[in-house]
């Protein structure tokens, strides 16, 4: 795995500009804070939704035989850009000990369920 952060680009502790990992790319469905029954976990609570969303990403990775370090790109959709600090805390905890993936953060008017505050889309490189 190689992290790429070319000189001249803003350097940030929340992501790498590019992450190269060999394997087969998997473009997963965006993950939210739904439980296994489709109920929103943490309605109105960004910290609870971040935690459950990363828990769901962990479950998806386990199903793929992958780890957080196999994620090369994330796109985080939020209904309020003020949630950035909570999302960064959850992200740092989830990726502890890993090279951070490339990342995009997008403010949106809404998500699939009005109770959802964020959605995280990932690209995973699965070892072949």
Q: Mean pLDDT score, rounded?
A: 95
Supply the CATH architecture.
2-Layer Sandwich
Structural class: alpha+beta
Q: Level of helix content? A: 10-25%
Largest sheet: 4 strands, mixed
Describe the structure.
It is globular, with a radius of gyration of 14 Å. The protein has one domain (29-126): RutC-like (60s Ribosomal Protein L30, Chain: A). The strands form 2 sheets. The chain has a 4-stranded mixed sheet with strand order 3-6-4-5, with helices on one face. Strands 1-2 form a two-stranded antiparallel sheet. The protein has helices at residues 46-64, 84-94, and strands spanning 2-4, 18-20, 24-27, 71-78, 102-107, 118-126. It is α+β, with helices and mostly antiparallel strands and 128 residues long. The chain has 2 helices and 6 strands. Strand 4 (71-78), helix 2 and strand 5 (102-107) form a beta-alpha-beta unit. This is RidA family protein. It holds the Pfam family Ribonuc_L-PSP. InterPro entries: RutC-like_sf (IPR035959), YjgF/YER057c/UK114 (IPR006175).
Defining traits:
128 residues; alpha+beta; 60s Ribosomal Protein L30, Chain: A; four-stranded mixed sheet; two-stranded antiparallel ribbon; 2 helices; globular
List the helices and strands and how they pair.
Blueprint: E1 2-4, E2 18-20, E3 24-27, H1 46-64, E4 71-78, H2 84-94, E5 102-107, E6 118-126
Parallel strand pairs: 4-5
Antiparallel strand pairs: 1-2, 3-6, 4-6
Helix pairs in contact: 1-2
